[in-house]
Design brief:
Blueprint lengths: L4 E5 H6 L1 H6 L6 E6 L2 E6 L3 H12 L10 H7 L12
Parallel strand pairs: 1-2
Antiparallel strand pairs: 2-3
């Protein structure tokens, strides 16, 4: 399964429900098929995806990567006309 659109059958969903839904928040959507034809779309709830993203956004807090000087250096591009301000 990739992080974008997955296509799975209803039978596969029934057999592997726990495994499929465990990482649903990381997916854009899952297209469910019945008899080989698209039947429904399964998507993560927006608040669940938002919580996951917010948790990941602060992953480097209080680590060596939590350094404004480092990020200013990283965000410099030769083609950028104005530097990014933090």
């Amino acid at each position: 399964m990739n992080n974008y659109n997955d296509i799975i059958s209803i039978t596969e969903l029934r057999r592997n429900f726990g495994e499929i839904t465990k990482n649903l928040a990381l997916k854009k959507e899952i297209i469910l098929t019945r008899g080989g034809e698209p039947f429904a779309i399964l998507k993560p709830a927006p608040n669940v995806k938002r919580k996951l993203l917010m948790k990941a956004a602060g992953a480097w807090k209080n680590t060596e990567l939590d350094d404004d000087k480092l990020w200013k250096k990283v965000l410099i591009r030769k083609s950028r006309k104005k530097p990014i301000t933090l």
